[in-house]
Design a protein that fits this description.
By secondary structure, the protein is mostly helical. Helices cover about 60% and strands about 5% of the residues. It has one domain: Orthogonal Bundle (Hyaluronidase domain-like), CATH 1.10.3450.10. It has six helices and two strands; from the N terminus they run αααααββα. A two-stranded antiparallel sheet has the order 1-2. The longest helix has 21 residues. The C terminus is likely disordered.
């Protein structure tokens, strides 16, 4: 997949996630993930897909599914290297937020973890999980 199309799919997935449409985010991110051969970029995108999937399970009231996908997201994001920097994703912040969620019993009513995606230098995160981590 050409870089411009990957970036458009990535941005569309993040926008869906930020709107709270985690299922759509999962679906929109998949072409970006499948369309790159760059291993750190693949790990980043797959980690975000698993993060979205965790909150699909939360909507279905499945705490075991939330836990499994948060752990999977963490493992993938940990292997993303610096891939998040180029697209405005704060990977260390996400890892800390995921650790914070996993440290306590899963509450399926908790909102999705903000991705802390930045655009033109402005953060779109509300910072809720920084206090939890």
């Amino acid at each position: 997949m050409p870089a411009a199309e990957r970036r458009a799919a990535f941005e569309a997935g993040l926008e869906a996630y930020e709107r709270g449409d985690v299922f759509l985010a999962h679906e929109l991110l998949e072409p970006a993930w499948m369309g790159t051969l760059d291993l750190p970029e693949r790990e980043l995108i797959q980690g975000l897909i698993k993060l979205a999937a965790a909150f699909v399970h939360a909507a279905r009231r499945n705490p075991a599914g939330v836990t499994k996908n948060l752990r999977g997201a963490r493992a993938r994001l940990e292997n993303a290297g610096g891939a998040g920097e180029g697209v405005g994703v704060d990977v260390p912040g996400l890892l800390a937020a995921i650790d914070g969620r996993l440290a306590a019993p899963i509450n399926v009513a908790d909102p999705p973890i903000p991705i802390r995606h930045t655009e033109r230098g402005r953060s779109r995160s509300d910072g809720r999980d920084r206090a939890r981590a």
